[in-house]
Amino acid sequence: MDNISNSLESVPDRSLKGRITMVLPFIVLTLLSILASPGYTIETQSVYMEVSGDNVTVYVEPKRNVVVIDSVFLVNASVANIPSDGGEKGLHSYQFEVTYNNTVLEGINVTLPEGHFLTPEHPDNIFVVQCRVNQTEGSVHLAVTLLYAVSVEPGKAGNGTLVTIAFKAKSVGNSSLSIVNPILSGPQSQIYECEVLDGYVEVVSPDLNMDGKVNLEDLSLQKEAFGSYPENPNWNILADLNKDNIINILDITLVAKEYGKTV
After folding, report:
1. CA triple 191-192-196, angle to 5 deg
2. End-to-end CA distance of the chain
3. Is the pTM here over 0.70, yes or no?
4. Distance of CA 25 to the CA centre of its chain
5. CB 134, CB 69: distance < 8 Å
6. Cβ neighbours of residue 30 under 8 Å, at least 6 residues apart?
7. Which of 208, 209, 186, 183 is nearest to 194 (CA)?
8. Residues pairing with 241 in the sheet
Protein backbone atom coordinates (compact mmCIF):
# COMPACT_ATOMS: atom_id res chain seq x y z
CA MET A 1 0.00 0.00 0.00
CA ASP A 2 3.08 2.20 -0.06
CA ASN A 3 2.13 3.16 -3.62
CA ILE A 4 -0.88 5.11 -2.39
CA SER A 5 -0.22 8.83 -2.46
CA ASN A 6 -1.42 11.11 0.31
CA SER A 7 -2.35 13.68 -2.28
CA LEU A 8 -3.60 13.86 -5.86
CA GLU A 9 -1.94 17.21 -6.44
CA SER A 10 0.75 15.75 -8.68
CA VAL A 11 -1.73 13.90 -10.92
CA PRO A 12 -2.63 15.75 -14.16
CA ASP A 13 -6.30 16.46 -14.70
CA ARG A 14 -6.25 14.17 -17.74
CA SER A 15 -5.47 11.19 -15.50
CA LEU A 16 -7.23 9.75 -12.47
CA LYS A 17 -7.63 12.96 -10.44
CA GLY A 18 -9.86 14.69 -12.97
CA ARG A 19 -11.93 11.62 -13.61
CA ILE A 20 -12.45 10.86 -9.91
CA THR A 21 -13.60 14.44 -9.35
CA MET A 22 -16.26 14.00 -12.03
CA VAL A 23 -17.48 10.47 -11.31
CA LEU A 24 -16.98 9.93 -7.57
CA PRO A 25 -20.25 11.61 -6.51
CA PHE A 26 -22.14 9.43 -9.01
CA ILE A 27 -20.37 6.24 -7.82
CA VAL A 28 -21.09 7.01 -4.17
CA LEU A 29 -24.77 7.74 -4.84
CA THR A 30 -25.08 4.60 -6.95
CA LEU A 31 -23.53 2.39 -4.26
CA LEU A 32 -25.70 3.92 -1.57
CA SER A 33 -28.84 3.27 -3.62
CA ILE A 34 -27.78 -0.37 -4.14
CA LEU A 35 -26.92 -0.88 -0.49
CA ALA A 36 -30.19 0.66 0.60
CA SER A 37 -32.16 -1.87 -1.46
CA PRO A 38 -33.71 -4.95 0.19
CA GLY A 39 -31.08 -7.43 1.34
CA TYR A 40 -28.33 -4.85 1.80
CA THR A 41 -27.43 -2.93 4.92
CA ILE A 42 -25.30 0.21 5.11
CA GLU A 43 -23.01 -0.49 8.05
CA THR A 44 -19.59 0.47 6.71
CA GLN A 45 -16.99 3.19 6.93
CA SER A 46 -14.67 3.42 3.96
CA VAL A 47 -11.38 5.00 2.98
CA TYR A 48 -11.07 5.50 -0.76
CA MET A 49 -8.08 4.92 -2.98
CA GLU A 50 -5.91 7.70 -4.37
CA VAL A 51 -3.78 6.40 -7.24
CA SER A 52 -0.95 8.66 -8.39
CA GLY A 53 1.44 8.56 -11.33
CA ASP A 54 0.98 7.19 -14.83
CA ASN A 55 1.61 3.47 -14.28
CA VAL A 56 -1.10 1.00 -15.23
CA THR A 57 -2.68 0.01 -11.91
CA VAL A 58 -5.18 -2.60 -10.76
CA TYR A 59 -6.63 -1.83 -7.35
CA VAL A 60 -9.35 -2.59 -4.82
CA GLU A 61 -11.73 0.26 -4.01
CA PRO A 62 -12.30 1.30 -1.21
CA LYS A 63 -8.80 0.56 0.02
CA ARG A 64 -10.08 0.12 3.61
CA ASN A 65 -13.50 -0.81 4.96
CA VAL A 66 -14.64 -1.01 8.58
CA VAL A 67 -17.85 -3.06 8.63
CA VAL A 68 -20.19 -4.37 11.32
CA ILE A 69 -20.59 -8.12 11.66
CA ASP A 70 -23.47 -9.59 9.57
CA SER A 71 -23.53 -6.56 7.25
CA VAL A 72 -23.27 -6.81 3.45
CA PHE A 73 -20.93 -4.46 1.61
CA LEU A 74 -19.54 -3.88 -1.87
CA VAL A 75 -16.03 -3.40 -3.19
CA ASN A 76 -14.78 -2.71 -6.71
CA ALA A 77 -11.80 -4.05 -8.59
CA SER A 78 -10.72 -1.17 -10.83
CA VAL A 79 -8.02 -0.10 -13.28
CA ALA A 80 -6.24 3.19 -13.84
CA ASN A 81 -4.01 4.72 -16.52
CA ILE A 82 -4.74 2.28 -19.36
CA PRO A 83 -3.01 3.89 -22.40
CA SER A 84 -4.64 4.77 -25.71
CA ASP A 85 -3.20 5.08 -29.21
CA GLY A 86 -5.90 5.27 -31.83
CA GLY A 87 -7.46 2.00 -30.74
CA GLU A 88 -4.25 -0.01 -31.12
CA LYS A 89 -3.71 0.12 -27.39
CA GLY A 90 -6.20 0.11 -24.56
CA LEU A 91 -7.55 -2.83 -22.59
CA HIS A 92 -9.12 -5.67 -24.57
CA SER A 93 -9.10 -8.48 -21.99
CA TYR A 94 -8.18 -9.20 -18.39
CA GLN A 95 -7.75 -12.04 -15.94
CA PHE A 96 -7.05 -12.01 -12.20
CA GLU A 97 -8.23 -13.29 -8.82
CA VAL A 98 -9.21 -11.49 -5.64
CA THR A 99 -8.41 -13.50 -2.53
CA TYR A 100 -9.86 -12.98 0.97
CA ASN A 101 -10.08 -14.55 4.42
CA ASN A 102 -13.06 -16.91 4.14
CA THR A 103 -13.35 -17.30 7.92
CA VAL A 104 -14.08 -13.56 8.24
CA LEU A 105 -15.87 -12.81 4.95
CA GLU A 106 -18.40 -14.63 2.83
CA GLY A 107 -18.25 -13.88 -0.89
CA ILE A 108 -21.83 -13.48 -2.12
CA ASN A 109 -21.49 -12.60 -5.80
CA VAL A 110 -19.42 -10.77 -8.39
CA THR A 111 -20.88 -8.76 -11.27
CA LEU A 112 -19.91 -6.55 -14.17
CA PRO A 113 -21.76 -3.38 -13.15
CA GLU A 114 -23.57 -1.15 -15.61
CA GLY A 115 -21.02 1.03 -17.38
CA HIS A 116 -18.08 -1.18 -16.36
CA PHE A 117 -14.69 -0.38 -17.90
CA LEU A 118 -14.85 -3.06 -20.61
CA THR A 119 -18.38 -2.17 -21.74
CA PRO A 120 -18.40 -2.98 -25.49
CA GLU A 121 -19.64 -0.84 -28.36
CA HIS A 122 -22.27 -3.53 -28.99
CA PRO A 123 -23.68 -5.55 -26.07
CA ASP A 124 -22.85 -8.88 -27.76
CA ASN A 125 -19.18 -8.03 -28.29
CA ILE A 126 -17.98 -9.35 -24.94
CA PHE A 127 -17.28 -12.84 -23.61
CA VAL A 128 -17.17 -13.66 -19.90
CA VAL A 129 -14.89 -16.64 -19.33
CA GLN A 130 -15.04 -16.54 -15.53
CA CYS A 131 -16.91 -14.33 -13.09
CA ARG A 132 -17.49 -16.39 -9.97
CA VAL A 133 -16.91 -16.65 -6.23
CA ASN A 134 -15.28 -19.70 -4.64
CA GLN A 135 -16.07 -19.42 -0.94
CA THR A 136 -14.23 -22.65 -0.13
CA GLU A 137 -10.97 -21.19 -1.46
CA GLY A 138 -11.71 -17.63 -0.39
CA SER A 139 -11.26 -16.30 -3.90
CA VAL A 140 -13.04 -14.51 -6.74
CA HIS A 141 -12.09 -15.54 -10.28
CA LEU A 142 -12.32 -13.11 -13.21
CA ALA A 143 -11.56 -13.54 -16.92
CA VAL A 144 -13.26 -11.30 -19.51
CA THR A 145 -12.48 -10.37 -23.12
CA LEU A 146 -13.90 -8.20 -25.86
CA LEU A 147 -14.70 -9.87 -29.19
CA TYR A 148 -13.67 -9.00 -32.76
CA ALA A 149 -10.83 -6.91 -34.15
CA VAL A 150 -10.08 -3.35 -33.04
CA SER A 151 -11.84 -1.99 -36.12
CA VAL A 152 -15.07 -3.39 -34.67
CA GLU A 153 -14.38 -3.33 -30.94
CA PRO A 154 -11.47 -1.04 -29.94
CA GLY A 155 -9.63 -1.37 -26.66
CA LYS A 156 -10.71 0.74 -23.70
CA ALA A 157 -8.44 3.46 -22.33
CA GLY A 158 -8.37 5.49 -19.11
CA ASN A 159 -9.73 4.50 -15.71
CA GLY A 160 -12.76 2.64 -14.43
CA THR A 161 -14.39 -0.23 -12.57
CA LEU A 162 -13.94 -3.77 -13.86
CA VAL A 163 -16.16 -5.71 -11.43
CA THR A 164 -18.13 -5.25 -8.22
CA ILE A 165 -17.95 -7.88 -5.48
CA ALA A 166 -20.52 -8.30 -2.69
CA PHE A 167 -19.33 -9.66 0.66
CA LYS A 168 -21.00 -10.49 3.95
CA ALA A 169 -19.09 -9.91 7.20
CA LYS A 170 -19.45 -13.29 8.92
CA SER A 171 -17.14 -12.99 11.94
CA VAL A 172 -15.08 -10.43 13.82
CA GLY A 173 -11.58 -10.13 12.42
CA ASN A 174 -9.77 -8.71 9.41
CA SER A 175 -9.06 -9.67 5.85
CA SER A 176 -6.89 -8.45 3.02
CA LEU A 177 -8.51 -8.22 -0.40
CA SER A 178 -5.56 -9.17 -2.59
CA ILE A 179 -5.40 -9.00 -6.37
CA VAL A 180 -3.46 -12.06 -7.56
CA ASN A 181 -1.87 -12.92 -10.93
CA PRO A 182 -3.31 -10.05 -12.98
CA ILE A 183 -3.05 -10.25 -16.77
CA LEU A 184 -4.10 -7.15 -18.72
CA SER A 185 -3.83 -7.34 -22.49
CA GLY A 186 -4.48 -5.01 -25.40
CA PRO A 187 -6.01 -5.47 -28.86
CA GLN A 188 -2.69 -6.70 -30.29
CA SER A 189 -2.29 -9.19 -27.42
CA GLN A 190 0.29 -6.92 -25.80
CA ILE A 191 0.64 -7.45 -22.05
CA TYR A 192 0.65 -4.41 -19.77
CA GLU A 193 2.91 -4.43 -16.77
CA CYS A 194 0.85 -3.20 -13.85
CA GLU A 195 1.03 -2.18 -10.24
CA VAL A 196 -1.33 -3.80 -7.73
CA LEU A 197 -2.94 -2.04 -4.77
CA ASP A 198 -4.81 -4.39 -2.43
CA GLY A 199 -7.70 -3.62 -0.06
CA TYR A 200 -8.36 -4.33 3.60
CA VAL A 201 -11.50 -5.07 5.62
CA GLU A 202 -11.95 -4.88 9.40
CA VAL A 203 -15.06 -6.58 10.80
CA VAL A 204 -16.14 -5.27 14.20
CA SER A 205 -18.87 -6.03 16.73
CA PRO A 206 -21.08 -3.22 18.09
CA ASP A 207 -21.58 -5.21 21.32
CA LEU A 208 -18.70 -3.59 23.20
CA ASN A 209 -19.35 -5.20 26.59
CA MET A 210 -20.08 -8.60 25.00
CA ASP A 211 -23.38 -9.19 26.79
CA GLY A 212 -25.14 -10.28 23.58
CA LYS A 213 -27.09 -7.03 23.17
CA VAL A 214 -26.42 -3.67 21.54
CA ASN A 215 -27.84 -1.16 23.95
CA LEU A 216 -27.25 1.95 26.04
CA GLU A 217 -24.44 0.27 27.96
CA ASP A 218 -22.38 0.00 24.79
CA LEU A 219 -23.03 3.62 23.85
CA SER A 220 -22.21 4.71 27.39
CA LEU A 221 -18.78 3.09 27.13
CA GLN A 222 -18.16 5.14 24.01
CA LYS A 223 -19.54 8.29 25.59
CA GLU A 224 -17.09 8.00 28.49
CA ALA A 225 -14.20 7.68 26.05
CA PHE A 226 -15.50 10.22 23.53
CA GLY A 227 -12.76 12.46 22.14
CA SER A 228 -9.97 10.35 23.61
CA TYR A 229 -6.93 8.87 21.92
CA PRO A 230 -4.09 6.55 23.02
CA GLU A 231 -2.25 7.90 26.10
CA ASN A 232 -5.36 9.89 27.04
CA PRO A 233 -6.70 8.88 30.49
CA ASN A 234 -10.19 8.28 29.06
CA TRP A 235 -8.95 6.05 26.25
CA ASN A 236 -10.81 2.75 25.78
CA ILE A 237 -9.58 0.69 22.87
CA LEU A 238 -12.87 -1.23 22.74
CA ALA A 239 -14.71 1.96 21.84
CA ASP A 240 -12.45 2.68 18.86
CA LEU A 241 -14.36 0.50 16.43
CA ASN A 242 -12.85 1.87 13.23
CA LYS A 243 -9.30 1.60 14.58
CA ASP A 244 -8.25 5.16 13.73
CA ASN A 245 -6.87 5.93 17.23
CA ILE A 246 -9.51 8.51 18.08
CA ILE A 247 -13.00 7.97 19.46
CA ASN A 248 -15.46 10.20 17.67
CA ILE A 249 -18.88 10.20 16.03
CA LEU A 250 -17.72 7.67 13.41
CA ASP A 251 -17.30 5.08 16.15
CA ILE A 252 -20.61 6.05 17.78
CA THR A 253 -22.57 5.57 14.54
CA LEU A 254 -21.28 2.03 14.06
CA VAL A 255 -22.96 1.12 17.36
CA ALA A 256 -25.98 3.40 17.01
CA LYS A 257 -27.07 1.80 13.72
CA GLU A 258 -27.17 -1.59 15.45
CA TYR A 259 -29.02 -0.34 18.56
CA GLY A 260 -31.56 -2.82 19.92
CA LYS A 261 -30.14 -5.86 18.14
CA THR A 262 -28.94 -9.08 19.73
CA VAL A 263 -25.63 -10.48 18.55
Report:
1. 130
2. 33
3. yes
4. 16
5. no
6. none
7. 183
8. none
From residue 239, alpha-carbon distances to 126, 185, 226 in Å are 48, 47, 8
Could you give the count of Cα atoms lying within 13 Å of 166 in the half-sphere of its Cβ?
A: 16
In degrees and rounded to multiples of 5, residue 223 shows phi and psi of -60, -40
Contacts 24+ apart (CB under 8 A), 13-16: 15/54, 15/80, 15/81, 15/159, 16/51, 16/52, 16/80, 16/81, 16/159
- What confidence tens digit (pLDDT) does each residue in 212-238 have? 999 999 999 999 999 999 999 999 999
Q: Which domains does the chain have, with CATH numbers?
A: 16-204 (2.60.40.680), 216-256 (no CATH)
Torsion of CA 69, 73, 76, 77, to 10 degrees: 40
Higher pLDDT, 44 or 201: 201
Return all residues near 44 (Cβ < 8 A) that are at least 6 apart. 65, 66, 67, 68, 71, 73
